[in-house]
Every structure is written in C-alpha cells, then in structure tokens.
Design a protein that fits this description.
Layout (H helix, E strand, L loop, with lengths): L9 E8 L5 H14 L3 E9 L11 H14 L3 E4 L5 H11 L2 E3 L1 H12 L3 H16 L8 H6 L11 H36 L4 E6 L5 H9 L16 E6 L5 E6 L9 H6 L1 H8 L3 E7 L5 H14 L7 E6 L9 E4 L5 E5 L8 H15 L23
Parallel strand pairs: 1-2, 1-3, 3-4, 5-7, 5-8, 8-9, 9-11
Antiparallel strand pairs: 6-7, 10-11
C-alpha cells in the first residue's frame, strides 16, 4: 500500500510540451500548486504534441500511459497542467478510470481553501459556479441536495435542468451581494480620497513575497508562507511616514500565468480597486530565473483590470538570495522606478519608506522630495534587475 498524503490525495501530474517554452518552470509550478492544494504528487507524465487532441487533449497513446500510471501509483486524481474542455475531462475519466481535473479547477480549489473573508468566499464561490456551469452535463446534483430537492423540480424537468436552474439562482444572488460590497468599497474609497491619504497596493506574481513585505512595513501579522496563493483576501493597514503623514497600503492576491478567467471575473471588483490606487508596488521575486516572464504575466492581468497606466514602482525582492546590495533607481525626471530590497531580512526597507514618503508629500502638494541625497543608485534600464 502507498502512504497517503496526510489529509490529501495522491496526484498524477500531466504536462505536455506544446511549444510554449519554460517547460521545467511550468512543471515545477504545477507541483507547487498541487502541494498548495494538499495533494501528494506520486508521478509525472510528460509528452510532446504540436497541438492538443480534440477528444482527450493528450492523444490515445499518452492516455494509455496515463491509465497505466494511475493503476501503478494508485492515484486518486489526475491533474492536467492545461485548460481542458468539459468533453475532454469526461473522455479522459472514462479512459483512465480516475478523476481528472485541469489547471483551472486546481487553482479554484486552492482559492476555495484559502479564502477567509466573507467577500473572498463569495468571489471564490462565484468563480467555482461559473466554472461548474459548463460541466453540469456530468449530472452533478449537489446544489439540488443542498436545497432539499422535493418540491423544487418543475413538471417534466430533468435533474440536469434542475441543477442549472438552481445554479443560476445562486449565481444571481452572489453577483448582487458582490455588487453591494463593491458599492461599499466605493464609499470607503471616496472617504479616503476626501482625507487625502494616498493608497498603495502591493501586486505581483504569487509567492513573490508581497505579504512578507506588507508585514515588514506595517508590523501586521498577515499570513505569509512559501507557497502559492498564501494570501487571497485583501488586507489594508495605515503606515505612518513621519512628516509625510499616513499612507494606506494593501496586500492583494497574487497573480499567476494562465490565471483562470473565472477568477479574474469574480475578483474584478477587488482587483479594480487596485487600478484606483495612487501607486502600485509591483513586487518581483528577483531570485527566480523566470522573473521576467512572471512580470509579464502580472502586466497582462493589470491591463485586463484597467491598471495598465497606474503609477508603479518595481520592487525587486529577495535580494538575500541574490547577495546584491539594496539600491534605488530613478528615471530622467527624478522619480523612483525601481527598488531592490529584502523583505525577509529588512535590507532596503528604508529606501521603500522614503519612496512612499515622496508619494505622500507630493499628494499633499509639498515640493521637495525627502531623502534624495546619499541614496545608493543603480543604472537606469528596462532589463533584468541590477
């Protein structure tokens, strides 16, 4: 017998090379996602195709290999690190005799486990139901059972139609509740603007160290861990900057490549608050060999939520892993564009506080920038971190 992961499932991962590049990084990322979901990866199946098979995504030969691996490793679930159609999932499950999920379902499961606030739980549930709506052909009936069933079924209505009707009602209620929360956030935002307090949002790829930086700046106790999507719920704190006054800094959900559209849509109200911030701190894991690709993925999501042109400073975090000194970079107009620091060790936090103080003084109409002398600088440019 195989030893089962405590409280988890034995997962078999499938990763196909479709010519997208960064295969090793994609494979490592899905392993981390599976671990974050509480699964134990028992085996990995790799392969290469020019394009996905319309019926099973992987093709007949590869599906047989997956089925054999499921039996050999006693897998509980097969995780495709790709987006599968409902038909492909059904066909695969019939062939491999095991539950099959795709990357979207895996990420949704992690979000469902991590959401703590009522707002976050509503957004995750809405994303899950949007994803579920295309897969009801499986005959899932959990919604009907939760509602009691008897007396709810219409004349001549099939179980599938009942589930769709109940799901539609639940989605409608969730959207209305989220609209109410969005209006409340709008009132809070206008109140903040009247108080002339700058708003700063931390954004970045998941596991870049946003929560660690947030805690280091604000002395908060937000959950921070070396895992993907450790933070889902937005947390805001006031940060005192001496003569510059206060700024409000917010820790937000991390982004990831191929972020499910259902999640972007469900979290749109939260993410759009990011686009209204006075400044975005784009936190980057400078020790990651794929940090440039991660930055590009973050920019894609920011563009999707209307934050493409939001003012930002790129914060190259984890310099303790690169052994580089703290530094700051300014553009030709004297504005800070990049900062290199270590949130875990605290090196360079003074540079970031100085940058935030400049923002606060500028918003209040003060002219001179504090702390511009004796600040270590790095050359300007748009490539890799210095």
């Amino acid at each position: 017998m195989f030893e089962r992961h405590p409280g988890g499932e034995r997962a078999l991962i499938v990763q196909l090379d479709l010519g997208e590049g960064a295969l090793a990084e994609r494979l490592e990322e899905v392993r981390l996602l599976a671990d974050s979901a509480g699964a134990s990866v028992c085996a990995t199946i790799e392969g290469r195709r020019k394009f996905p098979d319309s019926a099973t995504y992987a093709g007949k030969g590869k599906v047989l290999e997956i089925a054999d691996a499921v039996t050999a490793h006693q897998a509980d679930v097969v995780i495709f690190n790709h987006a599968l159609s409902p038909a492909q999932e059904r066909n695969l499950e019939r062939e491999v005799h095991c539950r099959v999920i795709d990357r979207t379902s895996l990420i949704l499961d992690i979000f469902a486990q991590r959401a703590q606030s009522s707002d976050g739980k509503l957004q995750v549930e809405l994303a899950q139901l949007d994803h579920l709506a295309t897969r009801l052909v499986r005959g899932w009936t959990h919604l009907e059972r939760q509602k009691g069933g008897i007396g709810l079924r219409g004349p001549g209505e099939t179980q599938l139609e009942t589930d769709r009707r109940l799901l539609g009602k639940r989605v409608k209620r969730l959207r209305e509740r989220l609209r109410q929360l969005e209006r409340q956030r709008g009132v809070q935002s206008r109140s903040r603007l009247r108080g002339d307090v700058p708003a700063v949002s931390l954004v970045g790829y998941t596991n870049a160290g946003k929560s660690t930086l947030f805690n280091a700046l604000t002395h908060a106790d937000s959950y921070a861990a070396d895992q993907l999507f450790a933070t889902l719920d937005t947390t805001s704190r006031r940060l005192w900057l001496g003569e510059a006054g206060h700024v409000v800094i917010s820790d937000t959900v991390g982004f990831i490549r191929d972020l499910p559209h259902e999640l972007v849509a469900a979290f749109r109200a939260t993410l759009e608050a990011t686009s209204r911030a006075d400044l975005l701190l784009h936190v980057v894991d400078s020790a990651s060999p794929t940090h440039e690709e991660q930055m590009a993925e973050v920019e894609k999501v920011l563009a999707e939520i209307g934050a493409r042109d939001a003012p930002r400073i790129v914060v190259y975090n984890k310099l303790d892993l690169t052994e580089l000194p703290p530094a700051v970079e300014r553009d030709e107009y004297g504005k800070i564009t990049r900062i290199r620091l270590s949130a875990r060790r605290g090196d360079g936090l003074d540079l970031l506080r100085g940058a935030l103080a400049e923002l606060a003084l500028e918003k209040r109409g003060c002219g001179d920038r504090p702390g511009t002398e004796d600040v270590p600088s790095v050359p300007t440019g748009t490539g890799s971190p210095p």
